[in-house]
Amino acid sequence: LIAVTLAVAAIPEGIPLCVTISLSIGCSDMVREHVLVRKLAAVETLGSASVICSDKTGTLTEGKMTMVNMWAGGVNYDVDGKGFDPTIGGVKREGSNADAAQDVVVRSALLSAVLCCNTTISKVKDSETGEEKWE
Question: Which residues are catalytic?
Answer without folding.
Answer: 55
